[in-house]
Design a protein that fits this description.
six-stranded antiparallel beta sheet; three-stranded antiparallel beta sheet; Jelly Rolls; alpha+beta; 184 residues; 3 helices
Length: 184
């Protein structure tokens, strides 16, 4: 009887041990050293531009955090923003550093000024548009997911993809376009 009880108890604790080893492995994957990224610079020195114009600098990479977080610094020179889209696996947090922005999240609309922060939960359609002539956002994705790769791919394209191609690209990066960008 004791042997059966031991085997049963061992089988019950196996999932917990596997989970702890996974968490420990992820923690070990994080960058063990602090680092500083200068203003106007990206984590690995590459230049990524939203719509080919607006700097979208990676400050903290998923490679630094075991896939748990990415942080970007966006500077906008036009009153534009992304399509209405959904992230299936990431929450986003935006802090307005300069200028003003309108965010649409589900059925809510929020106008944010410098110093304000908004949380965009995964699974909810959202977009934003810059309202001022110049703007700056610091934003984070948690977990990091495939957003760094998405921005690199979009930046490398020589021409605007068709709607079908854009849908494939978004799907490959755990997102879906569900509407057009906002307009003023």
């Amino acid at each position: 009887m004791k042997r059966k009880q031991f085997i049963r108890q061992s089988l019950l604790t196996l999932p917990a041990l596997t989970f702890l080893k996974t968490v420990e492995a992820q923690a070990q994957q994080s960058n063990p050293k602090p680092f500083v990224i200068d203003a106007g610079k990206s984590r690995f020195g590459d230049t990524i531009k939203f719509l080919g114009v607006h700097p979208n600098d990676l400050k903290i990479s998923s490679k630094d955090t075991g896939g748990q977080l990415s942080v970007f610094d966006y500077t906008g020179f036009d009153k534009v923003g992304p399509t209405l889209h959904i992230h299936f696996k990431q929450d986003e947090i935006f802090t307005v550093i300069e200028g003003s922005y309108r965010f649409v999240v589900g059925d809510e609309t929020h106008q944010l000024q410098a110093g304000q922060t908004i949380f965009l939960p995964r699974g909810i359609p959202h977009t934003w548009i810059q309202l001022s002539d110049k703007g700056r956002l610091i934003y984070m994705l948690q977990p990091a997911g495939k957003m760094e790769e998405f921005f690199v791919l979009m930046n490398s394209l020589k021409e605007r993809p068709s709607e079908a191609e854009m849908n494939k690209i978004h799907a490959a990066h755990d997102m879906k376009v569900v509407g057009p960008p906002l307009s003023l």
